[in-house]
């Protein structure tokens, strides 16, 4: 997947950003990426799909349990579940882990192109940031 970290800042030309600005800036980029990806992914989905996914994101345990029972009853043995558990460090029975896994699997079922969408939106955002790096850093020269 991708990381929003110092390497990301280097890729977009913001390696020299003051330390105290990095974390808030990366959080802003994460929020913007989430919004744009969500908007793109929702295109073409039915209201029922959107409602179901929103319930999963909102961690409604009854919806998550029902979805897992129908689509991945043996989810504990799925390698993807193990990878998410390892990446998050959450306990195997943590409801947040189940919600994260369910959201990922839901996207695989309903929007199998979601990884491509994330990559395209991230690339677009990188280009925007790179094109505005001087303004972001406050190093742009005023017009004469």
3D architecture notes:
The chain is mostly helical and 144 residues long. It has 8 helices and no strands. The chain has 2 domains: 1-45 and 112-134, no CATH class; 46-110, no CATH class. It has helices at 6-11, 19-42, 47-57, 61-71, 79-88, 95-110, 114-131, 133-137. Helix 2 packs across helix 7 (114-131) and helix 4 packs across helix 6.
Which descriptors would you attach to this protein?
mainly alpha; single chain; 8 helices; 144 residues; 0% strand
Topology:
Elements: H1 6-11, H2 19-42, H3 47-57, H4 61-71, H5 79-88, H6 95-110, H7 114-131, H8 133-137
Helix pairs in contact: 2-7, 3-6, 4-6, 5-6
In short:
With 144 residues, the chain is mainly alpha-helical. The chain is built from 8 helices and no strands.
Shape call: elongated
Please write the string of helix (H) and strand (E) elements: HHHHHHHH
Strand content bin = under 5%
Unreliable runs, pLDDT <50, ≥5 residues?
Answer: none
* Domain count: 2
Helix/sheet category: mainly alpha
């Amino acid at each position: 997947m991708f990381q929003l970290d110092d390497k990301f800042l280097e890729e977009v030309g913001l390696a020299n950003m003051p330390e105290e600005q990095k974390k808030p800036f990366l959080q802003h980029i994460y929020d913007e990426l989430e919004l744009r990806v969500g908007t793109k992914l929702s295109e073409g989905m039915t209201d029922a799909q959107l409602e179901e996914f929103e319930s999963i994101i909102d961690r409604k345990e009854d919806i998550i349990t029902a979805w897992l029972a129908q689509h991945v009853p043996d989810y504990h043995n799925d390698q993807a579940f193990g990878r998410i558990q390892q990446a998050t460090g959450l306990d195997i029975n943590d409801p947040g882990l189940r919600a994260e896994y369910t959201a990922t699997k839901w996207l695989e079922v309903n929007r199998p192109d979601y990884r491509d969408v994330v990559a395209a939106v991230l690339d677009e955002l990188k280009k925007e940031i790179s094109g505005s790096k001087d303004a972001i850093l406050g190093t742009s020269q005023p017009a004469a």
